[in-house]
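Exercise 7b. C-alpha cells:
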C-alpha cells in the first residue's frame, strides 16, 4: 500500500495546541506555514509553538515571485466598472479609488495597456496612464477586493524568486531547526539555485509548480529538487480551468520519469471550509489524483480558515 502524505496548512482555525495535537494523531506529516499570510515578526513565535505541540515537522512556504495587492481599508472594497483608480508605487491603505501592490517595485514595471487582475479575476484594472509616482487605471471588471489578494498581469514583469521576507523567515526557520522549505512560483532551475543559496543543500526543498513557466521548465527543475507541489489554484491563472486536470496529469507523468514525489494542492475539500462533509466530486478528485501518481495531498484554506480543520 502506497504511503500517502497529508500536508496541512495552519492558520486561525487550527493554530492552537488542541487542534495541532489532534491533527498529528490523524496522520498529518507536515505542517505548512504560508508566509504570504504570516507576518515576519510572528514566524519565530509560530514555529516555536508548533514545535512545542508536536513532533511533526514544520514547512515554511515562501511568498515567492507573485504579485499581491497591499492592505485595504476593509475586506469588501467595491470597485465599480468604468471608475478610475490610482495605482500607487508606494504602499498605501487601499480603497475604492486607490490601491498599491507588492513587491514594492512591481508597479513601476506596469505599462499602459496592461491588465491587472486581482483575486482570481474578482476585479480587473486596465492601465491607461503612467505618471511619475503612480498610474491611472480604469476598472474594466468590477467587484470586491480585500487585503493581500494574489494578482497577475498579462504585462511583462520581472519578480525575484525569493523575497527579502522569505530570506529572513527561512533564516529564522533554519536557526530553529526547520528542515522543510517550499519555493512558491518555481519557474526555472535558476530559481532553485537561488533558494539553495539561502537554505543550503541538506534541507528538503518542495518546488511549487504554479505557472506556465514552471510547467514548461519541468525538465530542468525536476532533477534538482526533492519534491514538487502542483498548486492548481495559481496555475489556473495561466492555464484555462478546463485544462487544469490535463496539466496536472502531464506534470505527474513528467515527475514519475525522475522519481520525484508530487504533492497536489487546491480545492480538494473546498466545501468543507463551511460544511462538515465533503462532496462526492471532491472525494473522486482526491482518488483520481492519487491513482494518477500523486504522492500527497495539501490542505490549505480547509485547515487554515475552515470551520472543520480536524
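Sequence design result:
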Amino acid at each position: 500500500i502506497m504511503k500517502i502524505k497529508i500536508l496541512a496548512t495552519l492558520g486561525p482555525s487550527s493554530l492552537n495546541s488542541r487542534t495541532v495535537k489532534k491533527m498529528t494523531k490523524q496522520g498529518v506529516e507536515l505542517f505548512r506555514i504560508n508566509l504570504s499570510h504570516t507576518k515576519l515578526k510572528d514566524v519565530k513565535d509560530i514555529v516555536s509553538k508548533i514545535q512545542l505541540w508536536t513532533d511533526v515537522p514544520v514547512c515554511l512556504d515562501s511568498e515567492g515571485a507573485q504579485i499581491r495587492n497591499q492592505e485595504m481599508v476593509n475586506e469588501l472594497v467595491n470597485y465599480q466598472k468604468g471608475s478610475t483608480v490610482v495605482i500607487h508605487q508606494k504602499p498605501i491603505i487601499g480603497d475604492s479609488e486607490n490601491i498599491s501592490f507588492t513587491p514594492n517595485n512591481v508597479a513601476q514595471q506596469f505599462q499602459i495597456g496592461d491588465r491587472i487582475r486581482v483575486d482570481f479575476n474578482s476585479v480587473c484594472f486596465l492601465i491607461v496612464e503612467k505618471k511619475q509616482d503612480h498610474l491611472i487605471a480604469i476598472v474594466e471588471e468590477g467587484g470586491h477586493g480585500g487585503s493581500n489578494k494574489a494578482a497577475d498581469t498579462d504585462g511583462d514583469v520581472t519578480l525575484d524568486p525569493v523575497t527579502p521576507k522569505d530570506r529572513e523567515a527561512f533564516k529564522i526557520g533554519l536557526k530553529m531547526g526547520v528542515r522543510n522549505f517550499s519555493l512558491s512560483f518555481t519557474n526555472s532551475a535558476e530559481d532553485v539555485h537561488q533558494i539553495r543559496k539561502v537554505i543550503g543543500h541538506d534541507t528538503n526543498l518542495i518546488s511549487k509548480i504554479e505557472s506556465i513557466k514552471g510547467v514548461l521548465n519541468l525538465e530542468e527543475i525536476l532533477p534538482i529538487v526533492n519534491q514538487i507541489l502542483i498548486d492548481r489554484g495559481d496555475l489556473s491563472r495561466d492555464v484555462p480551468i478546463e485544462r487544469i486536470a490535463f496539466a496536472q496529469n502531464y506534470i505527474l507523468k513528467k515527475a514519475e520519469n525522475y522519481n520525484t514525489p508530487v504533492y497536489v494542492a487546491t480545492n480538494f475539500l473546498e466545501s468543507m471550509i463551511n460544511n462538515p462533509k465533503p462532496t462526492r466530486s471532491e472525494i473522486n478528485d482526491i482518488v483520481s489524483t492519487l491513482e494518477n501518481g500523486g504522492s500527497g495531498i495539501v490542505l490549505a484554506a480547509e485547515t487554515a480558515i475552515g470551520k472543520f480543520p480536524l
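Instructor comment: The first strand starts at residue 5 and ends at 9. The chain has a mean pLDDT of 95.
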